[in-house]
Amino acid sequence: NGQTSLCHKHDFRCRNGIVYNYTKGSFRCDGSLFHCKDGEDELFCDLIEYHPGTRVKSLDMNNYPLQKQIKQQRSYIDHMIIWYCNRGLYVRSLESTSGFVCLCPIYYYGDRCQYQRKRITTIFHVELTGSFNRNFPTMKFIVLLIRENEKRTILSYEQFLYTPFEYCSPKYITHLVYPINESLSLYSNDSLSLYSNDSIEVLMFTSSIVEHHSTWIFKIAFHFLPVQRIVKRLFISNIDTFDNSIERIINKKNSSSCSKDSFYVGYDINLNRDICVCPLDRIGSRCFITFIPWTST
């Protein structure tokens, strides 16, 4: 309305009328004793424009890698910088007009990582059944978020390795994310009907020579939830028995991007690339990089 505010941005008024000016001393959101009688000086600390500096340690490495030349010095970092990117990482950038960019984890997005993506967290316990010898191979698991509509679409995927007899009933956690545009229209009627054909498929392969062994399929029950957690136990039967049902589950057309000794699973629309299952001695998104696994002696 064009009128000048009577409140100074560095003044804080308690409920009992006492006014503090926190440019003369650190008391607002200092995490210590309450300065106001009812402790309102410690409320809504993530919304204020000013935070007192926090003392941290940094390293001055002018002559890296000479360790003798490294010395410690104290510097200050503003709380505002820490929280500006929410769940992301604040990085200064000369390319950005704002002078910084926010590096977001996979399940957050936005210029300040302020939005959450619809996602499913899976927790798998792997267990062996029956009698097995010590030569049981290392297995590779591919976890797919699948949508079966007019065509089979892979929305997201993760993978992990399982080495029997190394761990006792290991637990593996994966995060499967939906496309960002679906996170924006989460509660529309069209979106809820779209999610009804979603499922999670787990494919197990031998890792030395990539051969398919088993498949697990789990339907997703609560499509309206923006974040879900699914916990399952995966039982592995005799390794000599292989599952041929992968012929109908996976599009077996050859991929020009995967190496010849890898296994093509499908196309990930989240990463915009083919999904290649690499043997144990190959790494990379296309399985072209030679890798020598570490073995204990």
UniProtKB/TrEMBL annotation:
Provide the EGF-like domain boundaries. 102-113
Give the matching InterPro entries: EGF (IPR000742), LDL_receptor-like_sf (IPR036055), LDrepeatLR_classA_rpt (IPR002172)
Instruction: Name the SUPFAM superfamilies for this protein.
Output: LDL receptor-like module
Superkingdom of origin? Eukaryota
Instruction: Provide the alphabetized UniProt keywords.
Output: Disulfide bond
What is this protein called in UniProt? EGF-like domain-containing protein
Q: What is the lineage of its organism?
A: Eukaryota, Metazoa, Spiralia, Gnathifera, Rotifera
